[in-house]
């Protein structure tokens, strides 16, 4: 007679499935994940490409020591500021962390705003070749408009989708194209979406009104500078931060480094960081809308994390929120200045209204 898991065992496996919480910067992901992990007997896996670096604390809004004592966090402070860290390394560490959390009978809560890291966790990395330092150096020396022209000619599909203001991503796409003589989009299409879907039953996206999110961004940036972002950047530059092109992409550090070189005043730097952060939040939302259909939760300004976690816990049940891959072009970016998702059947505009 075949061995089938008992109902209790099946229920336990269901409960231990990872919960994914995504959204733009400053939307309130970390506070929600902390409260949710407390309710679910969970641990948090950071999905943030900058919180992996030791010393990048204030500028990445890293959880405090008290928060990390309250709930165990993973994939924070796992690399030095001058060390390379990429999606492949994240994928290995994240899967190892999730397996360890589940093995100890706890619930993994993956939380962050790095869309590419969520995608690699769910789908893998496909067949893209490793970096070629000589080719990458050549591409980095070329002007961005020249690189974009080549990308448009050799891979129009990737050109239409890629963040054209992000040289790092443009360079990587061209690097893969030149090394393989195949379109980057064709190789991305080989990613096995099915490999991650079984572990992505609960994928929630958080959003707020543009005014609310903008105010939260302004407040966060002001707090970062008040807490010593300039001094933190000075210390990191002495530890080799400037030599890490990935880490120097972190909003705040790059602008402060320019301020320290005398390129602009502190007041102008603060204003620039706020502006860059708003732009980044819009790009994050565009990424999540294009890559996934997930359960969107629209947050009202005066709803606390504990209330959010309580209501979200009720959604984590058999037949609850399920992630579906976008099959191409069904979610269009919103107009400039909008930060929430387009109205859709899987949006919850009243999920966390104040009571």
Distinctive features:
single chain, 355 residues, alpha/beta, Rossmann fold, 7-stranded parallel β-sheet, two-stranded antiparallel sheet, 49% helix, 11% strand, globular, disordered N terminus, disordered C terminus
| Secondary structure: number of strands | 9
Measured distance between first and last alpha carbons: 52 Å
Uncertain stretches of 5 or more adjacent residues:
1-14, 191-199, 318-346, 349-355
Order of helices and strands: HEHEHEHEHHHHHHHEHHHHEEHEE
Strand order in space, largest sheet: 3-2-4-1-5-7-9
CATH architecture of the largest domain: 3-Layer(aba) Sandwich
Classification by helices and strands: alpha/beta
Mean pLDDT: 82
Shape: globular
What portion of the residues fall into strands of 2 or more residues?
5-15%
Binned, the helix content reads 40-55%
Q: Give the count of structural domains.
A: 2
Radius of gyration: 21 Å
CATH superfamily of the largest domain: P-loop containing nucleotide triphosphate hydrolases
Biggest sheet statistics: 7 strands, parallel
**Count of helix runs:** 16
Q: Indicate the CATH topology of the largest domain.
A: Rossmann fold
